[in-house]
Amino acid sequence: NTPHIAVIGAGLAGVSCASQLEQLGMRVTVFDKSRGTGGRMSTRRGDQWQADHGAQYFTARDPLFSKELLRWQQAGVASAWQPAVAVLDAQNPDAARRHDNDSGTVRFVGVPRMSSPVRWLADELQLTLSARVNALIRRENRWRLCFDDSVEDRARLENIDFDAVALAIPPEQAVALIRPHAAAFAAQCDTRAMRPCWAAMLRFDARVALPFDAAFINDGPLRWIARDNHKPGRPSQETWVLHATAAWSEQHLESSADEASQALTDAFKALGGTTPTTATAHRWRYAEPTTPAQSQGCLWDAALNLGLCGDWLSAGRVEGAWLSGRALARSITSLE
Ligand code: FAD
Asked: What pLDDT, on the 0 to 100 scale, is given for residue 316?
């Protein structure tokens, strides 16, 4: 009998884990609470308009991830992005300088959207979306999942027995699910806080006359701004994405989207930007790990058949998420 594994979370770590498990001969079902896949590699879309409001770009340092990235490029779902990058001082934006460390950085993005590589990997998988898992039940050495009342087909889904569960979700969301079963893992989640990030998406009728396509900002409230339509394969409408610093986002965590969008637009204008035709904001409550783990990349309990993966257990960021999912798949199949 082929073991059946539940993967919870269809961000990059979850689909990386699931596709590796399938390649290694397992049967896998992936669940996500959202309506789509991608998690924090996410794109907001409208009429003739889109913006990557989560991950902005990624780099590839690990040879295994570089090999995977080549596959994505060959499939047309990722491409290099070569923006002119500046470093700005919020107190003195006129003194913009080119990014000192930029010469060696090769940046990549999903094409035509940041979520595209995840969607491509997920194409081959058995996926159940709009399905928030709110508890795990251990029964006769197997696992069952419990879902929110609103989940379609809930009774059937709650009757499936799984041989193992892989949680590919941020620590704050994983902890409630695992605490009744794995106190040591829950304790690790408790120590790994994620910091928030407010993101604003601005649309313009005309090109914004800033002499760069992206900038790192010192001294907040913004930490990063980018001309999203400069990325390859995007619609041409002038669109900027602004990311606030973690400190500003924490201070304004309970602000409304309108308030955050207004404050970040004002900060953009103080840097030399113009007034957008429309602006909207999104709050990422769990955006990035405070400090990336130096660990083996995943947690796996072979007695319980329960594991965790995600960027927060690896080197952080997109590359770390993929590596972490792969590491967990190999632990589940006892390869590493
Ligand atoms: P996620 O993408 O968070 O996936 C977790 C998934 O689990 C989500 O889809 C969620 O809906 C689902 N989920 C959670 N709880 C449940 C539940 N109970 N039941 C079912 N499903 C659940 N990285 C870079 O490399 N470069 C960057 O420039 C960069 N910039 C960033 C900017 C921002 C604003 C943010 C938010 C992130 C950025 N990152 C960046 C980080 C990068 O996006 C992440 O490292 C990576 O996408 C994490 O993938 P993941 O699979 O570990 O987690």
From this structure: 81
